[in-house]
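Newbie here. two chains, one complex. Structure please?
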Amino acid sequence: MADSGTRTVTSPSMSQPTTQPAMQEKYNHIAIEKAAQQHWETTAAFKAVEDATRPKYYCLSMFPYPSGKLHMGHVRNYTIGDVLTRFHKMRGYNVMQPMGWDAFGLPAENAAIANKVPPAKWTYDNIEYMKGQLKSLGFAIDWSRELATCKPDYYKWNQWLFLRMLEKGIAYKKTQVVNWDPVDQTVLANEQVIDGRGWRTGAVVEKREIPGYYLGITQYAEELLGDLDTLDNWPERVKLMQANWIGKSTGVRFAFPHEIKDEAGALINDGKLWVFTTRADTIMGVTFCAVAAEHPLATHAAKNKPELATFIEKCKHGSVMEADMATMEKEGMPTGLFVTHPLTGESVEVWVGNYVLMTYGDGAVMAVPSHDERDFAFAKKYKLPIKQVIKQGEATFSTDAWQEWYGTKEGICVNSGKYDGMDYTAAIDAISADLKAKNLGDKKLQWRLRDWGISRQRYWGCPIPIIHCDCCGSVPVPDEQLPVVLPEDCVPDGAGNPLNRRPDFLNVPCPKCGKPARRETDTMDTFVDSSWYYARFATPGNDKAMVDERADYWMPVDQYIGGIEHAILHLLYSRFWSKVMRDMGLVSYREPFSRLLTQGMVLNHLFSRRSDKTGIEWFAPEEVHLSKDEAGRVTGATAVRDGNPVDYGGFGTMSKSKRNGVDPNAMIEQYGADTARFFMMFTAPPEQTLEWSDAGIEGSNRFLKRVWTFGYTYATQIKPQLPAASTLASAKLPENLATLRREIHLLLKQANYDLGKQQFNTVASATMKMLNALEKAPRNSAQAAEVVSEGFAILLRVLSPITPHITHALWAELGYGADILQATWPEPLEAALVQDEIELVLQVLGKTRGSVKVPATADKAAIEALAIASETAQKFMDGKPAKKVIVVPGRLVNIVV
RNA sequence: GCCGGGAUGGCGGAAUCGGUAGACGCAGCGGAUUCAAAAUCCGCCGCCGAAAGGUGUGAGGGUUCGAGUCCCUCUCCCGGCACCA
């Protein structure tokens, strides 16, 4: 830390400001905020310049998607970042806080469909408006580093790195499964599929397999998992979620041999049905196998079984989302094909199951109904045999209903021949060894993590730099032709990618053979854009390189702040991208974000109405009337527009698409940016989910008014009494002033502690407590004036990161200094904290009965004696002798009788 | 369904290592000021009880001199689940 606890609290300058206009008596947030923002602008106060002589502090908040207006989640996120930025600046760090725009994405296309405006125009208009909103909040942002991911000078480097990944085999092409809308003839995002139907057309969505580009994030699985241990300043829960997502597990991959042949007479898959299991210890309990609808065995069997073909078709209409797969009704159908159990030689029937995914493992699973809950349910439904092979203690096994212990790994094998009596580990070792001996399988490391499909069949994204040539195939765009620029004047209409109707974009000579060829029209997943923007902020303006030596100075990000909803995908992709850049020699860090603060979501009521034709329609909270029960809970709602009921969906994240965001503008206009910022910080700790309510905003505003009024009182009544030179260090204070001073320094100590914990709500309340104390302070002596003056100087500085405008004005106005940003952060003084006598809580038999005052120097025996002798103790001890006395130093005494 | 998190007065929340539950604020109530109101200031404010006291941190159990905090079981709510960002 640049600032140790040895620093003394600075006293205000004693000199009177020269010819200043008289201080305003009333708090005028409009004038104050305008003046402060102007001051920062003219002094370029937040311009960040590399400086090797000072410790750097790169503070980054997740950049916003320019959806139109800021909402309260943004205000919360960016205020947290700003508080940390300003706090560190005052502690002597060389700080950088940039801002930019995650500017590609689906909402711009949705807006285009609705309003017939090109996504580019809509996006740039939104950026303009939201930038104004951010400025009005007074954030300490270095705007000279601003970037937007939809600009070619940014996304050029997405394309450039993608081509490097292709060269290294990290990027590759394979088929992917997508949601297909048969009416609009377009690919739908999961968000655009509602109850299995397209959001615009209402048509039943189909699964389709199309080619796409993937990034081999699984090649980095081991490192992404291992390096989580180096992230000491990340929340444990985020690391845990990432580790679970990566999902390293050891299991056994093995094959059921078979003789099934296709029409040409060749063995399908070389006569082996491969499966993966983490429960090889239950292999002797296999009673059937299940394969995915797309599995070659399923395809083969369906040729002679129309009802199976129908079932497979139905499976292909199902959702591709994991949550849907897990919760849907499990269904299956027998193929009539049989494979051989590799250890018992028994015949095992193959079923098609709608819950088996072709994209995971080998697209097939062994089924052990006795020890897997899903298989159990499936076997019960289709009356398949259930064979117990694990026993736990004396518990009896019954096939009537699933019992929790059936699934446990703690137990021993039974009905398993030579494996009987073995525990989980021993059984797996023995079974995998036997399978290996038969050349039918082995232990295998399995990852849950899948490679990252980045192709999107959408217009408003970064073009994938590939050219398709009839002769040469898929040809990478040569570096000197980068960037492949996306035309900005297209207006998507919902029916496919409009790039396919743009000959000027499509038609291009093949870079290899020069013959007419066609550009790839798929664009990149927007997670690509956000996977490295933090590094680009450190390299503004360089059109020759993706990053330069300035990134070496600023990276890694010292403090990253963003919503907990990004705990897995965005953060994992960013970590992956960093490691790829490192392996290409572009950067030297292993991990991009040293410290992470995951902000809780800001929630608001959700209202919707559903219809078969138009899909789902969302209502903003101001567009409905609420009905509530006696406890104040919302029971229902009607639309203001037509008086008809709308569905109440409880609380959910504020989002543009669900129309439940709250625009901070009204709040800022009425109360000012400082009030909005203070309220956001005061109302809840940063990591906590927040159900939005503006009840209480007036209290925050009232507090700032009181701060201002106290400043006025200070200027007119207290400051004139200050002695020429400070006496605080030498003179003994009367008890009431010593108490006041101790209280302020104690509050400062707590505030500094809480800032370290990033718990800003209690920092805010500490400043309120300081003001309460200062307002009650005596004002009738030079010494009192000194104590108050010191206390107010502490209050203003502690408050300044939260409410920078009002504290900027008061600091200068009251003559504490020219610019509070240049002031040093206050530290509590030990001398102010000492006290002669302390009060301990007095308990008898663990129940609090009162308190007892003891000298601060009293030892344990003295405290015991004083406590037992006290009137309160005597009353509740009821004449019995003390059996045991527990003394917690500085806290309490508990007498056990 | 799986993974992660949460639940404390009428409301937002506080309680740093297991040590006075409800700090600070909102709302409410009473008072001062005012012709009146707004604004401001002062006081009260978990629940039961006249008081003494009892009781109380989503529900139920446990450990401990002492549990909001630790352990077990459960309920509800929020986030993520790979094409929302």
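Moderator note: Confidence is low (pLDDT under 50) at residues 1-19 of chain A. Residues 315 and 354 of chain A are 6 Å apart (CA to CA). Thread marked as resolved.
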